[in-house]
Amino acid sequence: MIELTRDEEFAVLTIRRPSALNALSFELIGQIGECIRQAAKTDARALIVTGEGEKSFCAGADIKELQQRKLAAQREGAELGQAVFAQLDRLPIPSVALVNGFAFGGGCELAMACTLRLALPNAKFGLPEVKLGLIPGYGGTQRLPRLVGVARAVELVMTGRTVAAEEALAIGLVNRIVQAPGMAAAKAYVREFSGHGLRALQFAREAVQRAMDVPLHEGLRMEADLSTLAYRTRDAEEGMQAFVEKRKAEFRDE
C-alpha cells in the first residue's frame, strides 16, 4: 500500500510493500498518484517520498505483473507511470526522495521525478531494464540525462549497472548523502529551503526545469517573466523590507 501521513510541517509518502522490496504494481502507482493529489491540497511545506524498511526505497516494477501483457496494455502501463510521476513536476510544493536501500527501475525513476534526492549510505541506484530485454518506461531515459549528462546516462541505461550512494553523489544523481535516522535528516535538509515563500520556490523550480527544454534566449525570456511575477507577490515585498530592516522575513505564500 501507499500511505500519506503528516510529520510536523511535511507530508510523507511511504511505499509499504517490504515483502517485495517495495516493488510497484500498477495499483500502487495509481495510489501514488492519488497521494500526490492529496498532498497538493494540504498546507504541507514539502513532500518527502520514501520506502518502508531499511533494504529498499523501491525495487522497481512488479516483473510478474509485466509478463504476458499485450502491447496495448504495456503502452497504457508506461503512460500511467509517466503521468503519475509527472505530477511531481506540477506539485505546488517541493518533493524530496529519501532513498533507503535499492532504487531500481521504476524506483529510480520515481526518485528522479522528485525535485531533490537524498541518499542514505546504503542506497543503490540503477536502471537494469536492459538485462530483461527492456528499457526504462517511466521517464528514466528522459530524466537521467538531465541529471547526469547524456554520456553517463547512455552508459548507465545500456549497462544496467548499479550505482552506489557515493558515485550517485559524484555524478549528480543525488543532492546529498545523509545519515540515519533518515527521516530526521530529510526534515533538517528540507528546512534549509521550506521556510521560503512557496510562490518563489515554485517560480524558481519552474524556471530551472524549463531551461532543459528550450534554447537559451527563450529560457531567458521565461526567467524574466517568472522573476517579474515573483516581484509582484506580497512575499517579495516582505522579503525586501525585511532585508532593509535587517530582520528575518515572515513569508505567507502570498
From TrEMBL:
Q: Which domain of life is it from?
A: Bacteria
Could you tell me what this protein is called? Enoyl-CoA hydratase-related protein
Q: Name one Pfam family in it.
A: ECH_1
Q: Recite the UniProt keywords alphabetically.
A: Lyase
- What family does the database annotate? Belongs to the enoyl-CoA hydratase/isomerase family.
- Gene3D superfamilies in the cross-refs: 2-enoyl-CoA Hydratase, Chain A, domain 1 (3.90.226.10), Lyase 2-enoyl-coa Hydratase, Chain A, domain 2 (1.10.12.10)
